[in-house]
Amino acid sequence: MSPPPPGSPGPGTGPLLSQRTLLIVLTAVVIGAAFGVLTFFSAGSASGAVLAGLGASGASTLGLHTLLAP
To answer: Which segments within the chain are labelled E, that is strand?
Structure first.
């Protein structure tokens, strides 16, 4: 059996992230960014907006993980 040509993917290589994981992460980032922007416009505090965005992103990741069951 000859080795694969250089530059071609090997037999065991696959995608780094599944489509489900990518969908969950991207949606969580969008939700977190929306919460952060709305918090910044509401309170005017950048640090509070970052904390709100991170919290919303984490919570939405957990929620979307249970909602979009494999």
So the answer is: none
